[in-house]
From TrEMBL:
InterPro entries: DDIAS, Euk_RPA1_DBD_C, NA-bd_OB-fold, Rep_factor-A_C
The protein's name: DDIAS protein
UniProt family annotation: Belongs to the replication factor A protein 1 family.
Coiled coil ranges: none
Organism: Donacobius atricapilla
One of the protein's GO biological processes: negative regulation of intrinsic apoptotic signaling pathway in response to DNA damage
A Gene Ontology molecular function term of the record: DNA binding
Keyword tags: DNA-binding, Metal-binding, Zinc, Zinc-finger
Keyword Zinc-finger: yes
Alphabetical list of SUPFAM superfamilies matching this protein: Nucleic acid-binding proteins
Repressor among keywords: no
């Protein structure tokens, strides 16, 4: 599943979604269903307390090489160096910031994160393992 078949040098044209962090099953990496106290994985049946849920990065990009436009999704800890922290820690920083700022509306921190990601990725060239 994680085997690289080849390398592709391409430029990022756009970010396809604004949700970069998702609650992930520790067993199969599928998206978890969270409620206020528990989590549940629909794929493998894993359950636990919501406070113990793991989080992963998921960055959907539109990229272009010299010949094609492609949609790709980059998952997991390979994005840690770009964000500077793990997905779980970034989520914690955002929640702490929202709480300290007293903002009832978390749109401002979400917009700031989206803008930062766009600034760091759009127009830049990367080598992708595909």
């Amino acid at each position: 599943m994680n085997r690289v078949q080849g390398l592709l040098a391409a430029s990022v044209i756009s970010i396809q979604n604004s949700c970069f962090i998702y609650p992930a099953c520790q067993n199969c990496f599928s998206r978890l269903i969270l409620d206020s106290r528990r989590f549940h994985c629909l794929k493998c049946g894993c359950t636990g307390e919501a406070k113990d849920a793991s989080y992963r990065y998921r960055l959907s990009l539109k990229i272009a090489d010299t010949n094609d436009l492609l949609d790709i999704t980059v998952f997991g800890s390979c994005l840690d160096p770009f964000f500077g922290v793990t997905a779980k820690n970034l989520l914690r920083y955002i929640q702490d910031f929202d709480q300290l700022s007293g903002e009832a509306n978390t749109d401002s921190s979400s917009r700031a994160l989206v803008h930062a990601v766009e600034t760091c990725f759009i127009g830049k060239r990367f080598i992708f393992g595909v």
